[in-house]
Amino acid sequence: MANTRIVTVGAPDDLGLRKVLIDGRSVGRVWSEEQYQRLLTREGVEDGPHVRFVGEDRDYWPDQAWIRRTTGVCVVFGLLVTACLLFRIGIEDSGDALTYGGRIAGFTILVVALVEVLAAVAAVDFWELRLWSYSGVVVLIGVLITLLCSVSFFLLQIGERFTGYTVIAMGLLVWSSVALVELAKCRAWRGLSIPRKIAIGAIASALLAVANLAYSQVYVPYVTTPLIQSGAEFGESNQMKAGASLYVTAHLYVKNAGEVPVYILGSIYWIHGGPASGPPAVKTTDYELIYDGEFVTPVGHVLNPGEEVAQDVVVEIKNPEKRRYEAIRAQTEVYVIRKDRMTMATDFKLANLEKWTGGVDCEEGDPPGAKSRYSTKISNSSEMLNVTRGQQRITVWRVDSGDWPRVDAYVSPPGERLSFDPTLPLQNQEASERYGLSPVRGATAQTPYRELLEEARATEKDASPPPPSPTPK
Fold first, then answer.
1. Angle CA 75–77–83, to nearest 5
2. Cis? peptide before 298, omega within 30° of 0
3. Span 134-161, mean pLDDT?
4. Tens-place pLDDT, residues 276-312
5. Complete DSSP assignment for 171-203
6. Which of 276, 282, 294, 260 is nearest to 405 (CA)?
7. pLDDT tens across 81-128, in order?
């Protein structure tokens, strides 16, 4: 009896696992009588009345293997689904996000995805082997991450379209809630012991670093507004002989004087003749359209900070002696959208509305008088926003509205029927603010009409006038 080894079997834990000690040394944990007997055989110890059972007798083995393993498989499945989604978003954003902050967020998401994979491995240990004392803590962290991601997704989905990712997020929200209840029953946090001062210091440092990064790389670039300058200037005038057409040169330009790159979705300029005074003293209906056209091509042109696009046009005024203008006015307008908040495809397609008959091909939402329409899909600045918002469609029209033709732009989901109404300025306000979509009216250039005529008459008679710019179709 002096050589008999002392065997002690501990009480079942929350999952029914019982710890076995031989001579005070832990040799393993067992779920059932069969595992217990295999452990004794491996250690070369015989079973008998000398074995001491703590808490419960030797007949009490509460583990139900199929329930335990089913629970473990469900937890592993949920963690791996979360990891796959995070990997997909993180890989896209870490390389293709439009901003530095977006790429940093992508790398952070990849790290979180790796934590989810580690949590899935820990779940196998927690519900099967229990070789690692911190496996329950790691699983708990993984489930909390899934809960946080699903809640964040629903917050971002407020006011957005219902997508397939919404269904996945709903499933993960329910799954993580049930998994947290199960982990609470198992007291998965046991074994975690971190000194309070170290924990507080680490949390405070992390919060300060995150706050600094969010302010410098996310908030500041987001609130920085584009500074687009546009305008027109009159040049020389020319007339071959009295009674002939008057040719006037106009210089049109648009410049990005800010720090935010933009797409130019559409541009237009007007050359009007009318009173010397401008609005609001004079109504816009008092001006007669002489010429209009587009001065930035192609549609979707990228204007980076510091870049300028300029064009000189020659305007022909027929029968200049019969015109009763006091002044000639030139003005420009461009529609821009922020390049750091979206990516636009280069396949803008032109539909010539003048060829449409009976409204067969015309969409219901096209504004009255539309002459042409450009439309393309756009992606958001990050994959995370693509997941929550989905792709969008931007449509740009050139509209013939008498003496003041214009450009209209509208952002909508790809599958949604257009319902644009130019008389409702707040209709597309949310999308306009989200992507920085806005019209930029340029400075007005004005010159006295009589001075142009006098300058033209002083031109040498044998000078050939420059060819006028083609009239826009």
1. 105
2. yes
3. 84
4. 776 677 777 788 899 899 999 888 889 999 999 999 9
5. HHHHHHHHHHHHHHHHTTTTT----HHHHHHHH
6. 294
7. 999 999 988 888 888 777 777 788 888 889 989 999 999 999 988 877
Contact present, 254 and 334 (Cβ < 8 Å): yes
Going by C-alpha positions, the residue among 361, 373, 366 that lies closest to residue 398 is 373
Which three-class secondary structure state does DSSP give residue 268? strand
**In this structure, what token pair is assigned to residue 88?**
């997909």
Q: What is the mean pLDDT of residues 153-174?
A: 82
Residue whose structure tokens are 């509305």: 353
User: What residue type is 195 in one-letter code?
Assistant: P
CB crowding 194-226: b at 16 or more within 10 Å, else e: eeeeeeeeeeeeeeeeeeebeeebbeebeeeeb
What is the C-alpha to C-alpha distance for residues 437 and 264, in angstroms, rounded to an integer? 10
CA distance 97 to 127: 39
Supply the DSSP symbol for 263. Answer: E
The pLDDT value given to residue 473: 43
